[in-house]
Amino acid sequence: MRGRQWAVAIVCVLIGIGAVAVVRGQQTDEFLASAREPDLVRLLDDLQARQTRLDGEILRLQSAEQRLRSGTSAEALQETQKRADALRVLAGTTGVTGPGVKLRIEGENAFFASDLLNTVQELRDAGAEAIEINGNRVVVDTWFADEGDGISVSDTLVRAPFLITAIGDPNTMATAMRIPGGIADTVESQDGSLVITEREEVEILSTVNLPEPDPNVAVTD
For 144-170, what is each residue's pLDDT tens digit? Predict the structure, then answer.
């Protein structure tokens, strides 16, 4: 009887609240009281096998969860990094390399601040990610003004030839420069020349410095 009592005790522990399902609706106490020792041993073996399968499934699910969590974190980190990089490019605080175009504009009185502004706007509309004018990075608050024999780019005087580099789809930007009534026509009508060169890779290394935050200005949520 000692062996049978041992088997009954273990089965009771393993069955727990799932005993009703295991014995197909019979009352647990009645089943265990009337079951023979071989039946209890087979039930114990079956429960142990089920437990082993469940343990394996738990490990598999935990592993899958970990992979998903790791993957999600990696994707989130990658997306955050991409957004941060894009913001740095937009702010002009980092150099950038990629496909793009180079413009060379020459001619006396052939190019003015308003023309430069139109050029920048047309390049941006054509998808330019970054723009540089004679070594000066163009950002959201860059301004242009006619000054003497040149153009002031945010207080930096630049003169002809005007060299503009833009990063983006070369064909799209070059086409935008040549649309009827666009920059190419404007420069030509003012007796100037515009040379557009499409390249698989151009560099914009100039950057701007962000202003230091004012410690006297309170930051609110």
Answer: 999 999 999 999 999 999 999 999 999
139 shares its domain with 162: yes
Q: Are residues 79 and 132 in the same domain?
A: no
Residue ranges making up the domain that contains 26: 1-91
Q: Is 164 helix (H, G, I), strand (E, B) or coil?
A: strand
Q: How many residues does the chain have?
A: 221
Query: Do 6 and 68 lie in a common domain?
Result: yes
For the stretch 23-53, pLDDT in tens is 444 444 555 566 667 666 766 766 676 677 7
**H-helix or E-strand containing 184?**
helix 183-189
Alpha-carbon distance 107 to 110, whole Å? 5
Residue 214 lies in a domain: no
Give me the number of domains the chain comprises. Answer: 2
Q: How remote is the C-alpha of 193 from its chain's centroid?
A: 40
Residue 57 vs residues 17, 50, 54, 62, 85: alpha-carbon distances, Å: 20, 10, 5, 8, 41
Q: Please give the Cα distance from 1 to 9 (Å, whole number).
A: 12
pTM above 0.85, yes or no: no
CA distance 204 to 197: 15
Whether 42 and 78 share a structural domain = yes
